[in-house]
Design brief:
mainly alpha, 10 helices
Length: about 140
């Protein structure tokens, strides 16, 4: 469970959910921490704070791609593992969409204000990062 703890720690240190997931797994999959943080930097907050697919989920997709995409014929395997991941994440959290998970749309000023006032990123998102990492641990 070290990677789960590493991902949650990274998130709590101020990195995005996508960065936390990819950086926890990147080294064993061939990318250094600095590169992992750069690659995942635009995916937090549901894709650059647009409230779409949760960054912990997109980070997990990147990890799955790094693990299973070996050539142009790997798509079916990658897609199957992504589906397995999504099914597990939805079973725990009902959705993979950031605005649904948080209950507010951070792409709007009103939504972002509510998220900040209620400190949702500090309370809900660490669980989502932990869930994503735990599911990855099960399926990788």
């Amino acid at each position: 469970m070290k990677k789960v703890d590493d991902a949650v720690f990274c998130f709590k240190e101020g990195f995005s959910c996508s960065q936390a997931i990819l950086s926890a797994y990147g080294k064993e999959l061939g990318i250094d921490n600095k590169t992992a943080l750069k690659i995942a930097s635009a995916f937090g907050g549901g894709m650059a704070r647009m409230g779409e697919t949760c960054g912990a989920v997109t980070g997990a997709f990147m990890v799955i791609g790094l693990k299973y995409a070996v050539d142009k014929n790997s798509k079916d395997k990658v897609y199957a593992v992504v589906k397995e991941f999504v099914d597990g994440f939805k079973a725990r959290n009902r959705s993979i969409v950031c605005k649904e998970l948080l209950g507010y749309d951070m792409s709007t000023p009103e939504g972002m204000n509510a998220i900040k006032e209620k400190k949702l990123v500090g309370t809900i998102c660490p669980k989502l990062v932990k869930d994503a990492a735990e599911i990855l641990e099960q399926i990788l």
